[in-house]
Amino acid sequence: VKTCGSNLQGPGGTFTSPNFPFQYDSNAQCVWVITAINTNKVIQINFEEFDLEIGYDTLTIGDGGEVGDPKTVLQVLTGSFVPDLIVSMSNQMWLHLQTDESVGSIGFKVNYKEIEKESCGDPGTPLYGIREGDGFSNRDVLRFECQFGFELIGEKSIICQENNQWSANIPICIFPCLSNFTAPMGTVLSPDYPEGYGNNLNCIWTIISDPGSRIHLSFNDFDLESQFDFLAVKDGDSPDSPIIGTFTGAEVPSHLTSNGHILRLEFQADHSMSGRGFNITYNTFGHNECPDPGVPINARRFGDNFQLGSSISVICEEGFIKTQGTETITCMLLDGKVMWSGPIPKCGAPCGGHFSSPSGVILSPGWPGYYKDSLNCEWVIEAEPGHSIKITFERFQTELNYDVLEVHDGPNLLSPLLGSYNGTQVPQFLFSSSNFIYLLFTTDNSRSNNGFKIHYESVTVNTYSCLDPGIPVHGRRYGHDFSIGSTVSFSCDPGYRLSHEEPLLCEKNHWWSHPLPTCD
Ligand SMILES: [Ca+2]
Ligand SMILES: [Ca+2]
Ligand SMILES: [Ca+2]
């Protein structure tokens, strides 16, 4: 018999079955006891993953600290189905894993935390669902609906019972694989988007608008297994209708317009490998007008009239540039069809650039989405001679050790390095000593993250002082006189060490005697 487990304390944490995410041991007996630090609180757990050999390996969960006492048992779990949340009645909860002599599985990963007593905890809101009610105390009720076009599977309402357990799990909202749409606008999603659509699918969606009108599709996201899974769009309601387009792979198609008032979307997935799937919005429009272009993301649109002869303009938000189309498009007659004079403009965050405005924003490419792999982006910021440049980090998150932003004090890669950053560790701000700053963002060939949002501004150096030197990440600064001859010093939060101890002296040339130390 293998014994395992531990005593855990609030306010919260995570633990797993032995060897997770690899197979747990046979003949294991593991015991965990969780105790809230605040004795007036109770313990809530929720499983991120759970899979035990069904019927033979069990996890018994009980209230209090008397492990194994049958009077205190809350749940006995096996297989792979678990409640959203399990909440104790007292400030303690015990868990007992028992496995038999053969056949294992991955086990479980569970999060715990202390919550108010006489409550069931926040069970969340289903993806593509809407929740009514926000009380989680005994006798509180939560009601659920799904967004338009989705089907609700499960209970429409759940109540927080006296035993601190919800009467049921929250429902799920699924997008049906076969349906007709008659609303003038809506969304079509691949099954389980964006989690992966699975295998062996043959989904058919038909969009039917009023006779005389047409249908416009915008692809917000698209990722199918290339050459094996396909989306076909047909101009009509039968399998033999003419094909407007067939799509596969990860390239997001540009928008599509029907010729008639019915569109048929056929989605086929083969027996293996899945992608993220797709997210398509559609709208319908009349005979003498162009399709509603929507408001392109990262942009503002001017003009609300889509009739023949009207124009709209699209201006990118700060930090973005036009990646498709021109600023203005006009609804016109081309080859006997009413259509926009060019593609609907799109705005995106560019990989690199040269900036010389007094202030602005630099975004990682793809912002606000994840950046791509294998990037090599260079930005140069130029201020007027005699000025310096201050850059401020608003957001920074890259793959630790692999996706790196270098900041150089000058116009190019050969200029002295101000800092090299990855993960989430960045200073609040940095200054150049000349009127140039150079940034280089390189990413490796796997794993991405949110990237960064950086503000830059041109600043003048005061005749009698140095610029604010900043504060290290995980550190603090002593002294806020930055005039020539004064010093500032630094310390780090517990657990971090200062890279160098000497205080910074503001020298006659307006520069600090040393670079800002770091806390490592
Ligand atoms: Ca077993
Ligand atoms: Ca496939
Ligand atoms: Ca990477």
Automatic annotation (TrEMBL):
SUPFAM superfamilies: Complement control module/SCR domain, Spermadhesin, CUB domain. Signal peptide: none annotated. Residues 4-115, 177-285, 351-459 form the CUB domain. Residues 118-175, 288-349, 464-520 form the Sushi domain. The keyword Disulfide bond applies. The keyword Signal applies. It comes from the Eukaryota. Keywords: Disulfide bond, Repeat, Signal, Sushi. Gene3D superfamilies: Complement Module, domain 1 (2.10.70.10), Spermadhesin, CUB domain (2.60.120.290). Disulfide bonds join C146-C173, C492-C519. This is CSMD3 protein. The lineage of its organism: Eukaryota, Metazoa, Chordata, Craniata, Vertebrata. The gene is Csmd3_0.
